[in-house]
């Protein structure tokens, strides 16, 4: 659960970089539960989170993650990375100030070259500069283990054509109970 100070910090970051944060409020428990239900936790060794922000998904992922697995959280915002470093003391968590487009080199450094079993993203693909979303999608597909999955939550279906260029096994639905309603996507490799 986030404090009022956490919500204010998140909102301030949104005001500074609305195209990178993408939402005024952190993601709801409805979205968290829905997306994390798609994960086979017993088989997960490497989990990657793009844009962890204030840790809305980070904490629930760590709660479910096995003792020998690792979570690599990547964010372009140094303030969010610093906040998570101060707020969460867990040896399974690796915090990376960087870009999701660099997932392959990040995995080489932080996971000993192991592929990602799962990647979760709330990056605002509709506001990324042209070509950046395609680059992130292609790098993510290459970085996933066979049978691995990319889990995405968005407020539109803008990301669907990007997904279809890299993945053939895609499921998605709208979660009406979320405020505001959002779409969740599960794209499996191979």
UniProtKB/TrEMBL annotation:
Listed CDD domains: AdoMet_MTases
The entry's keywords: Methyltransferase, Transferase
UniProt cross-references to InterPro entries, sorted A to Z: Methyltransf_25, SAM-dependent_MTases_sf
GO-annotated biological processes: methylation
Keyword Transferase included in the entry's annotation: yes
One Pfam short name: Methyltransf_25
Residue span, Methyltransferase domain: 48-148
GO MF term list: methyltransferase activity
Descriptive protein name: Phospholipid N-methyltransferase
Species the sequence originates in: Sphingobium jiangsuense
């Amino acid at each position: 659960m986030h404090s009022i100070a956490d919500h204010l910090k998140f909102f301030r970051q949104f005001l500074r970089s609305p195209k990178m944060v993408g939402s005024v409020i952190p993601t709801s428990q409805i979205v968290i539960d829905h997306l994390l239900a798609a994960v086979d936790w017993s088989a997960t060794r490497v989990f990657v989170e793009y844009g962890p922000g204030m840790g809305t998904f980070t904490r629930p992922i760590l709660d479910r993650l096995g003792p020998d697995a690792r979570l690599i959280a990547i964010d372009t915002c140094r303030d969010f990375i610093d906040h998570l470093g101060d707020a969460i003391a867990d040896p399974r968590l690796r915090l990376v100030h960087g870009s999701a487009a660099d997932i392959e080199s990040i995995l080489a450094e932080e996971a000993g070259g192991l592929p990602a079993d799962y990647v979760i993203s709330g990056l605002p693909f509709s506001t990324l500069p042209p070509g950046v979303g395609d680059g992130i999608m292609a790098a993510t597909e290459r970085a996933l283990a066979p049978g691995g999955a990319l889990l995405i939550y968005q407020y539109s279906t803008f990301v669907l054509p990007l997904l279809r260029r890299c993945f053939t096994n895609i499921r998605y639905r709208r979660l009406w109970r979320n405020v505001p309603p959002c779409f969740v996507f599960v794209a499996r490799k191979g």
